[in-house]
């Protein structure tokens, strides 16, 4: 089984040293949330994930969620652990105190998301969508709905889902067919089939609150005729108690490559009672509140799985002896494989991506809080635009790198990586869903180039690249960070050129843009991680005297990133701008 | 379930148009093997693999090989199909007529290897190692052993294994512990444990012939004290009939991520009777006859799995409708996803790698035959050196690209790619062993830079790059291929620079070389595939009038490779030459 130690040191480093977003620090509601509280929460979270949740990973893989007699049964131990999980208040961590939440910021809850993802993605998914549904209802529901549903969701005794996909539509929700017929009392009756519904049914909570996209009877075709509905699995009486079973049933669950402990359901709605959330025909935009936050969390899943894969590969490489290293000191026997240059390169490749991603994700957590709660609407909007720009980037980059990292970890284990004992191959299989769900990574890239670079608020990417440029100019002033800053600047210039090419191509040939979007996303992502590393470097050189080992480690890890990972940008740029003429006219037979 | 159509057209194109190696065509033994015979064999092979073997893939995944009462049971249907398989003579295809083989060249049998890999890697593995063992015995066994064992192996009623790995050693065979004690009759008694033995036990054949690396009693330590032994599962009487069970038993089989139909065994040798093959203490070099041929076949496995993944992604992208393409003609509903630029890019990425790899592999098949059978020893050695150089490259590049291609195919299927129904995720899991077994891809890269570039026969890589250079000069003479040739030349220059850097670093810092070896392998591999494409382009422009559709398809596929894949070389070069100083001194904690 894979082992795990929550990387609290690195998390606390970010919390103490990189929580320097001026606007974030202006937020009244988080004034009291300092390092002591953060550390206390992270230590409790570490205990929970390392001791109770980690063992569920293997159990869930060996005893997948089952569908029997119309209901889903979770793997052994899930129920008991979930009970403890909600008793200790973990579902309420980031929720509004008005509904019983602890009101913690994403600067803390994102770390918790990472830990949970490391320990068991399958187990995490049962509460993850609840938080998504909670956020959606919180922002778009009317008061009576919020009062009726949110407290129990915050407590975790009810869970939530998001029901978008149907057999004919995943990416293209305009095609969806589920119907909602308005009743005289203002409620709706929903009928249709939803597929790939994560935690669509299970035995962990008393009730499940489905958020369902459907089409009202008189709605226009396409995406402009979609509304959002809240459909409880079990109806709620006026006094808040559980009533009759609603008209939603589970048709089957999927047999999947990984995350086998998580139930992925076909749900059949058959005249199920639902409540409209948000304005009629604007359901997609309400749902996107949930989707966007969720996409960032999926990125964090990739980060969390990368972290545990790295930890296990590192441990194994210290134990496994094989071959003599180039500078061997031993006179007989083999050296630990961590003494071999190629293994060290592979480990640093993982580490430099993981820590860079964590820093980027921490910056994004601060921006997200500013986008939600800052009192100045302009500042709020600016942060929202940055979050919107970086959401597809974080989702795709972190999950793709999660595949690279879990794969490289398997390679370090050799044959033992392909067998089930060590738990590495499970990380690889579990993570493989992350580049697919919540919109495939190509769909993220399309979203980025066609919708996010420029919107009604103007040139977001221009604003972002200027932000990075200013950071580079600052870092160039110090001798210690100068070379790093100059290297990043070269790559930033490529990003700027690539962006100009995208903008130009947008008028000439949208297909050129479509064929380049994945490369573009990767360039933007790598520059962003590089920018995060530059911030870490600034601090590391300044703080060196306080903890030489820690900060030297950071500097050398960053150096690896700048030397060996940033050059990937060159290839993406060259490939990306090669155009689409022969791609589009190619005659596939 | 995945579908499959053997790509006979492309194979026959290579056989008819690229079988132009002068030395290969000088081989007496293959003078009679022309296109008609090749086509006949490939068509029969296609029927077999498409109809009988393909269904075994899913069956094997759902009903893994079982270990019961000390014996391995293969999945349902394997036995019946294997019987038909050997009755039709498929195990004997490439074997020597002296022992009952059909004596077909690798220019044909490599295509058969590809087809089998596409249809079911698990099923293929039961006969694949037999051919490996056959080759090893053929080259290193004495006549009496060959007469005793080879005819039944060629017939397929006996199978073979290669037993190298032990719990403490995979890459580093110098550590191996299995002992062989010489008996008064010249036989040996072997004792020890071997792990990860593919087809180590099963119920498909009457007998299993193990080739086992072990250490004779008085042997020196390390790799210089390893000998090779033939150990039959069931002993053979002097009259050739089956005798007593030998002292080898199956301890267990592995539970694996994929290739579940294939039994991966722990074998316990307990005073098992064995016959020494080849000279004492030179067992590793005898085994490498088998290993090297086998490594190329593993590369071809990656190619075969890539092909079937591509075919299924292509079919699905024509059926699945989602979203409007940029140039949509439709007024309502969605377009097939193959109309989207990004999907087309992804499909061409697969296709251009697959067809380039197939052409490279076909060239290598010719070189291999020359290296084995040419009458001029200098020509023979030259070909052997090229094969030796390209073996780790083909093994690693094709299997890594197999992961990229099966992964991209999954992405095209979206959520359906992660569930079991379509068979795509199985291709991804099955292929995942190929970068690991027969030496991990990093071990291949280490082999390449430290052992293959330069050997006692001189500067092999220099000879190879000159060969490519001459091809480029030729192609530059024609207006049609000039631009392609110039592009390849730029990348060849990078390869030459990288090679010079490797040679220089070999004296300064072996760790620099170790940290760069994977990047170097990739650069050499991509240039080699580019060179293969250049040969295909030469022919395509010349032959255009004979089949415009086919050759235009080739030219445009090549264009994609030159525009979008060759630029990967830049990143590998830049990353590779960045040195290892901070990697080696990094303090992993």
Helix content of chain A: 55-70%
Q: How would you classify the quaternary structure?
A: homodimer
Low-confidence stretches of chain A: none
Mean pLDDT of chain A: 96
Strand arrangement in the largest pleated sheet of chain A: 4-5-11-7-6
Distance between the termini of chain A: 46 Å
Largest interface summary: A-B, 97 and 97 residues
**Structure summary, number of beta strands of chain A:** 13
Explained architecture:
Two copies of one chain form a homodimer. Chain A has about 600 residues and is α+β, with helices and mostly antiparallel strands. Chain A has a domain at about 290-305 and about 350-405 and about 425-575. Chain A is about 60% helix and about 15% strand. Chain A contains 19 helices and 13 strands. The first copy, chain A, has helices at about 10-15, 20-25, 35-60, 80-85, 105-120, 120-140, 145-155, 285-320, 340-375, 375-415, 415-420, 425-430, 440-450, 460-475, 480-510, 510-545, 550-565, 570-575, 580-585; strands at about 65-70, 70-75, 160-165, 180, 190-200, 205-215, 225-230, 235, 240-245, 250-255, 265-275, 455, 460. Chain A has a five-stranded mixed β-barrel with strand order 4-5-11-7-6. In chain A, strands 1-2 form a two-stranded antiparallel sheet. A two-stranded antiparallel ribbon of chain A has the order 8-9. In chain A, helix 6 (about 120-140) packs antiparallel against helix 8 (about 285-320), helix 10 (about 375-415) crosses helix 16 (about 510-545) and helix 14 (about 460-475) runs antiparallel to helix 15 (about 480-510). The model of chain A has no long low-confidence stretch (mean pLDDT about 95). At the A-B interface, helix 9, helix 10, helix 11, helix 12 and helix 13 of A face helix 9, helix 10, helix 11, helix 12 and helix 13 of B.
């Amino acid at each position: 089984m894979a082992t795990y130690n929550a990387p609290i040191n690195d998390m606390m480093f970010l919390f103490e040293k990189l929580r320097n977003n001026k606007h974030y620090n202006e937020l009244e509601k988080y004034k009291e949330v300092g390092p002591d509280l953060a550390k206390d929460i992270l230590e409790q979270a570490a205990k929970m994930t390392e001791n109770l949740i980690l063992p569920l990973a293997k159990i869930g893989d060996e005893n997948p969620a089952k569908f029997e007699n119309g209901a889903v049964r979770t793997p052994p131990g899930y129920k008991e652990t979930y009970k403890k999980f909600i008793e200790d208040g973990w579902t309420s961590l980031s929720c509004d105190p008005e509904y019983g939440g602890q009101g913690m910021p994403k600067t803390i809850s994102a770390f918790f998301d990472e830990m949970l993802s490391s320990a068991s993605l399958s187990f995490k998914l049962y509460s993850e969508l609840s938080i998504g549904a909670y956020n959606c209802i919180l922002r778009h529901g009317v008061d009576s709905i919020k009062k009726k549903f949110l407290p129990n969701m915050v407590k975790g005794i009810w869970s939530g889902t998001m029901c978008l996909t149907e057999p004919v539509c995943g990416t293209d929700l305009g095609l969806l067919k589920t119907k909602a017929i308005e009743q005289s009392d203002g409620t709706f009756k929903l009928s249709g089939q939803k597929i790939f519904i994560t935690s669509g049914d299970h035995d962990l909570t008393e009730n499940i609150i489905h958020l369902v996209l459907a089409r009202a009877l008189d709605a226009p075709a396409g995406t402009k005729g979609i509304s959002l509905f809240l459909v409880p699995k079990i109806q709620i009486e006026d006094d808040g108690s559980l009533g009759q079973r609603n008209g939603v049933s589970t048709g089957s669950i999927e047999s999947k490559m990984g995350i086998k402990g998580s139930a992925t359901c076909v749900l059949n709605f058959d005249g199920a009672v639902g409540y409209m959330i948000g304005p009629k025909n604007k359901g997609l935009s309400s749902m996107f509140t949930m989707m966007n936050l969720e996409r960032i969390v999926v990125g964090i899943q990739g980060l969390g799985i990368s972290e545990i894969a790295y930890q296990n590969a590192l441990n194994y490489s210290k134990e496994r002896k094989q071959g003599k290293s180039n500078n061997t000191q031993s006179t007989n026997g083999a050296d630990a494989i961590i003494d071999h240059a190629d293994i060290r390169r592979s480990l640093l490749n993982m580490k430099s991506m993981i820590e860079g991603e964590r820093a980027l994700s921490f910056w994004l957590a601060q921006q997200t809080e500013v986008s939600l709660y800052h009192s100045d609407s302009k500042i709020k909007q600016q942060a929202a635009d940055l979050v919107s720009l970086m959401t597809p980037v974080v989702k795709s980059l972190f999950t793709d790198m999660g595949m690279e990292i879990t794969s490289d970890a398997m390679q370090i284990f050799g044959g033992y990586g392909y067998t089930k004992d060590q738990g590495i191959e499970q990380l690889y299989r579990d993570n493989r869903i992350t580049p697919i769900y919540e919109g495939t990574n190509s769909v993220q890239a399309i979203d980025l180039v066609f919708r996010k670079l420029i919107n009604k608020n103007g040139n977001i990417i221009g604003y972002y690249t200027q932000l990075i440029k200013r950071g580079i100019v600052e870092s160039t002033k110090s001798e210690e960070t100068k070379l790093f800053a100059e290297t990043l600047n070269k790559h930033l210039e490529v990003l700027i050129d690539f962006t100009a090419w995208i903008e130009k191509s947008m008028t000439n040939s949208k297909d050129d843009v479509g064929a380049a979007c994945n490369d573009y996303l990767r360039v933007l992502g790598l520059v962003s991680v590089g920018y995060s590393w530059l911030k870490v470097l600034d601090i590391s050189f300044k703080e060196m005297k306080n903890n030489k080992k820690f900060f030297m480690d950071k500097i050398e890890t960053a150096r690896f990133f700048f030397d060996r990972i940033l050059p990937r940008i060159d290839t993406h740029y060259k490939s990306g701008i090669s155009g689409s003429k022969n791609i589009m006219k190619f005659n596939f037979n």
